[in-house]
Amino acid sequence: MQLSQQRALARQISALERGEPVAVPGLQEMPPGLHVIGVTGPPGAGKSVLVGQLAKHLSGLGHRVGVLAVDPSSPVTGGAILGDRLRMPVDLAGSGVFIRSLASRGALGGLAAVVPACVQVLAAAGFECVVIETVGVGQNETDILTIADTVLLVQSPGAGDDIQGLKAGILEIGDVFAVNKCDLPGSQQTVNTLREVVDAPRHVGWRPPVICTTALAGEGVVQLVEVLGQHRQWLERSGELSRRRLRGIEQQLRSALLQAVQSRHSLSDIAARVINGEVTLQQAIAQLVTSVEVSKSRAEME
Amino acid sequence: MPIRVLLCNPGLDGHDRGVKVVARSLRDAGMEVIYLPLRTTVEQVVQVSIQEDVDVIGISNLSATIVPTCEHVVKLLREARAQDVLIVAGGIVLKQDREGLQALGIQGVFGPGSPMQEIVSYIQEHVRTSARGPQ
After folding, report:
1. Interface residue B54 vs chain A (CB under 8 A)
2. What's residue B130's pLDDT?
């Protein structure tokens, strides 16, 4: 990819970040072979190093790889240190991998609001494999589900006992697990715990594999790439791929709708009016729904 | 929109404490800071700056090679038609080097002891506003 093409792509992503529409031919189509891999896990588990290794390996296999790496924005100043790239091999960019660091800019689910649009732009530019790295997540940031075909959950050893593994949330969304830093003591116990968790799989026909990796040394990466590819094949075969993408878009529509309503109405003001007895809850809801309908028909007229 | 800054230390210079302090200050000033590791090449820096579509490249150097490094960056940016990026230099900058940097059009030069607020204000005032808004 020429530097000028990379620049054009980078500019498109910036435009998306500013909330401007981007006109790219083929933007509405999902290329048939596209694989969107979401990499998530707690801070410091080694996601960025692993993503770097994955990108390097996938690119070596001849795939065109795009990486979107999200780091948190400060809730106080809006600033951010985008440090994911620091952990990836610095020559990746020179070998054709397109990496973009994104700040979460207020989004709380582990991603930036612009990520789905970025995936589309990358897909339209011919990238077959898009790897998304979420911010370091806790137990409940699961937005990656709305965009990833395959969720890779990265854990490191010593993250807790078997009860931690029973908790609802992040552990439920992994399609593939990597126990990274597998050279550290206690890693086998973490692997065993995770294997017990995935004993009750979410889907018939896919039991999430647990892979040992030491990303810094590149160990386990070949196996991981293999398993990710197998998951992609399973998604296609089982029909789960189209179900997931449908569900993801539905979720994105839902949050877009909510955002649009909230940008026009202060929900806390409406709530206060209900509390003060100015309107009933039912009346407030009816008014809100009417206003959405009005703005919709106005948009149709335009 | 937050200003996007790439901070880097290309070449063989191994001193990264100063640039990390700057990274923190720019973050606290509401900027999005991409930080590259030590021992990168100028080619890599320019490539990253393009993929990340940054508004500013901050180049740190404490081994008396700031001028040739910046010269190389400016040349590659021009070749990539990305010369609208603001370049800021920092680290140990010798007196005679300041002239060399000026000749390259680099006015923002910050040596040891520069108040952080000065760096922040310089960037805020000189970042190409055209790159921030609709083109």
Report:
1. no
2. 44
